Amino acid sequence: MSPWTHPPTTPEPDVGAGHSHVEHPSLGPAPRNLRVLMAALVGPLVLATLVGLVLLWPDGDLELTAPGVDVQRGTATVTELVPCQLVGGKEVEGCQAATIDVLSGPGEGDASVAVLPYGEKAPQVDVGDRIIVSYTAGAPVGEQYAFQDFDRGPPLLTLTILFAVGVLVLSRWRGIGALASLAYSLVLIVVFTLPAIMEGSSPLAVAVVTASAIMLVTLYLSHGFNVRSTVAMLGTLVSLVVIGVLGWVFTTVGHFTGLVDEGSQYISGVAGQVDLHGLLLAGLVIGALGVLDDVTVTQTWAVWELADVDPDASVRTLFGRAMRIGRSHAASTVNTLVLAYVGATLPLMLVFSALSLPFGIAISQEVVAQEVVRGLVGGLGILAAVPVTTGIAALIAARLVTDRAAGRETGRTTAGGGSHRA
């Protein structure tokens, strides 16, 4: 061989959807008995998820206990700012209104007048702004439309497109699966999770079924239908069980009611059938799913790569090496998770600071304590996910390496004995 000639290399498999069955370019496909075992583990989970979806699927017959005023909403563009006429046609000092072109909702395509918020800290509305307006049919003329919020649809759409392009540029074909998984998760939550909870189904049961349905589809869609994805799914499942049990125990012992903010109070008033304590647990389970996905997938892929680099490594060696990766990953992920929950309560903590509440009392307030429970229970779920997933992955990767070596030895034996065949 010429010194300038490179030895042939095994081509890396296409990562497109059509080749997602490839386990690893070196480890090769999983043997049949291992695939059967994986199917035996996943099959009952799939069946239980489908049964849960059927039993808990909302029937659309939702009745609110206190529907209140019939208010509709739409979008509009501000064309001119004018003084507002309220209270029997008299001008109100400081009050402002705007002429608007209604873009969607009641009166679509018409020009009308909308009352704007006023006061020292009211949002500033300018000509050309796109706003969300509420429409009350029974209100006096000139007061039927009122400013509710700014319409942030266009910038959010632009940001979404940038996000999708970034995912596709970095992940290529796998990015399509990731985006499809994200869309599926959001649609499932909108059409199943939220209506089922609103109709009075157990929020924890709905969250478990939702998490299972999301996990089964998104892991395989994003990472391919292979043993690695199954290992990551099993690790995620065990961790979700840990999170659900710990969350139930500590929210029960801590006397959490779930009735801590305006949203919860509104729901309790208009939909008394919703279990707010269960809703807290549901948010905990679904919120932890995305982080667990990241941890379990990373650990599984790390074990596979380590097994490829060192085919002679034992299960214990693979586990030890991958755990060193997992410890660093878990430490950074737990920190990220806890800081995210701390950030969610930062404005409230400022209120407690202004009131000079002792730290122990401030953190015991339910609105803060529930974020503490979410962060710590989610962190414990991550800590459980690392060794569980790493252990399963090490066992299976070592088995694949052994089967590969046995296959090569069988091939050499068959090739050597071929001349003795008739």
Question: What would a concise description of this structure say?
Answer:
With 422 residues, this protein is an alpha+beta fold. It is built from eleven helices and five strands, in the order αβββββαααααααααα.
Helix content: 55-70%
Order of SSEs: HEEEEEHHHHHHHHHH
**What does the average pLDDT come to?**
78
> Hey, roughly how much beta strand do the residues contain?
5-15%
Placed side by side, the strands forming the largest sheet appear as: 1-2-3-5-4
Amino-to-carboxy terminus distance: 36 Å
Name the shape in a single word: elongated
- Give the beta-strand count: 5
- Rg for CA atoms: 28 Å
Unreliable residue stretches: 1-23, 411-422
Which structural class is indicated by helix and strand composition?
alpha+beta
Q: How many domains would you count in the coordinates?
A: 2
Major sheet: 5 strands, mixed, barrel
Instruction: Output the number of helix runs.
Output: 11
Structure, described:
InterPro entries: YibE_F. Residues 1-11 have a biased composition (Pro residues). Residues 1-23 and 411-422 have low confidence and may be disordered. The protein is elongated and about 85 Å long. The protein has 2 domains: 22-60 and 172-406, no CATH class; 79-151, no CATH class. With 422 residues, it is an alpha+beta fold. Strand 2 (90-104) and strand 3 (111-116) form a beta hairpin. Helices cover 61% and strands 12% of the residues. It has helices at 32-56, 153-171, 173-198, 203-223, 227-253, 262-270, 276-309, 315-344, 346-354, 359-364, 366-416; strands at residues 71-86, 90-104, 111-116, 130-136, 145-150. Helix 4 runs antiparallel to helix 5 and helix 4 runs parallel beside helix 7. The chain is built from 11 helices and 5 strands.
